[in-house]
Amino acid sequence: MFGRNKGKKGNYAYVVARVKAKKAQLMSDDAYQKMLLMSLPEISRFISESGYQKEITDLTAKFDGINLVEHATYQNMARIFEDILHSATGELHDILAIDLERWDIWNLKVILRGKSFGVDADSIREDLVLAGKLNEEDLEKLISLESQEEIIALYGRKTGRPIPQSVIDEVKEKKNLSIIEDFLDKNHYEALLASIDPKDKPYRLYQDYIRMEVDMKNLETILKLKLEGVTGEQVMDYYISGGKEIDRKLATQLANAETISAAVNDMAQLSFFDEIKEALDKDINTLREIVAGLKKCKMDASKNFSHLYPLSVIPVIDFMIHKENEVNNIRIVARGIESGLDAETIKGLLVI
């Protein structure tokens, strides 16, 4: 099914029991309300008592304030994801490994963006998540390189997913990192879908979930490009095949719409439209609220699927999605407080 462990089902009961216990320890919505009233040192102490003690203890001598929260949350998430992967066997291990490759892509994006904006190495490291194939030594090597071409080439060798020279040349010519970012996302989802053999119902459900995620990624990309003034066939270069609801015909209709408002009628047929309708009704110039709605929808879907098949890959993926959201929410609160935002504004940025 997934190559290395073909024919071996995996230790689903053991891994699901572990993630079930971890999910019970995730922060409640009330915890974020409490954090909105805290200073950064108080937030560090609070999260230390809420599952992040190891990372806070290990990093306190090196960092403080927002830097401590930033490093501790991502290190905690990476440690937990790595622990889950290492505890899994058989096809369960292999599908989780492919899913976690999204963090290799995340890390490459962070490094390339950081380099292009002249960000120092320490600041780049704050946003890295060591949950994919690339280890700390690999990432340090990528950070040390000067040119985008060198970074991209080494990434391809280290991950075993080389990036075509034509893509690298286009990035250099157009000086637009979105080209490689969208290529990487497209490649990841297509590889993930290809790895799933839907012979069993739990995997058909997981495949449906990934196909829904592909739809959401396609919609996010189309709307992002539309805000940048890109429409028509150019948008379709970034279309990811395999979605459940947004086929090439609908994607083309959305891409050809001159504005986001003009595309709303076509979007209304999507099953997750209600999650983004309110944001679309506003006079928006940002995708923030739409993306937040899509994230909420993905979390709800993974939770519902996990109840249907409690001994499958789905509860594991569900926990990982909720864990990532917890980390993002903590960082949003911490960054908001550091920036002097009021509590209501910060609250509006959270996905809960």
Order of helices and strands: HHHHHHHHHHHHHHHHHHH
Give the amount of beta strand, in percent: under 5%
Quantity of strands, as a count: 0
- Stretches with pLDDT under 50, minimum 5 residues: none
Structure description:
- 35% of the residues are buried.
- It is built from 19 helices and no strands.
- The mean pLDDT is 91.
- With 352 residues, the protein is mostly helical.
- Helix content is 73%, strand content 0%.
List the helices and strands and how they pair.
Elements: H1 12-24, H2 29-35, H3 40-59, H4 65-87, H5 90-100, H6 102-116, H7 121-126, H8 136-144, H9 148-159, H10 165-174, H11 178-195, H12 201-227, H13 233-236, H14 248-256, H15 260-267, H16 273-281, H17 288-308, H18 313-339, H19 343-349
Helix pairs in contact: 1-18, 3-4, 4-5, 4-18, 6-9, 10-11, 11-12, 12-17, 14-15, 16-17, 17-18, 18-19
Give a brief outline of the structure.
The protein is mainly α. The protein has helices at about 10-25, 30-35, 40-60, 65-85, 90-100, 100-115, 120-125, 135-145, 150-160, 165-175, 180-195, 200-225, 235, 250-255, 260-265, 275-280, 290-310, 315-340, 345-350.
Which key phrases capture this entry?
globular, single chain, mainly alpha, about 350 residues
